[in-house]
Amino acid sequence: MIGNQARLRTGQSLIAVSAVGVLFALTAKWAGPDFIGVVPDGMEMQMANADADGAAGARPKTVVTPVSCEQLPNVPGKSITTVIVAFPPNGFTPRHRHPGSVSAFVLKGTLRSQLEGSPAVVYTEGQTWFEPPSTVHLFAENASTTEPAELLATFIADDDCGPLTIPD
After folding, report:
1. How far apart are CA 119 and CA 11, in angstroms?
2. Is 87 exposed, middle or buried (0-12, 13-18, 19+ CB in 10 A)?
């Protein structure tokens, strides 16, 4: 389990994540089929490279940094997991689903996101969206080709702190 000692500078960018359990959690729990590995600092993971329009060139990868995963004592069998998702300029996340409920909060930048059955929506800093369990998320992308964007995602799912994204 990852400690809950993460600190955010002015609520916008991750400064530090408690090292206790980070390497174990990243290698044993988040290393599902939707991730390609741990980046050199040992604390961030990258979503598989994706291409929004099927063109030959792939778009930049999003980087998912786990912040915490804690069992919910008042909801047996469930946990709350928080991650920061960094979108480089033109960054893209392909079609996927989540095994639990997800709330996303845009920390900086502008993101476009589309859930199956709904139109694409543009979200700016301070705005949120919600994804019910197993909803198909068609894509999420950084709307800017020059500025990074970041979101805070909070998941309520089974308490094993396992993979949070299911490729679809």
Report:
1. 29
2. buried
pLDDT higher at 127 or 48: 127
DSSP string, 7-68: EEETTTEEEE---TTHHHIIIIIS-STTEEEE-TTSS-EEEPPB-SS--SSPBPPPEEEEEE
Question: What does pTM read for this prediction?
Answer: 0.68
pLDDT tens-digit map of 120-150: 999 999 999 999 999 999 999 999 999 999 9
User: What CATH number is associated with residue 62?
Assistant: 2.60.120.10
Region of 117 (left: φ > 0; alpha: ψ -120 to 50; beta: rest) is: left
Residue 38 lies in a domain: yes
Query: Mean pLDDT, to the nearest integer, of 88-102?
Result: 95
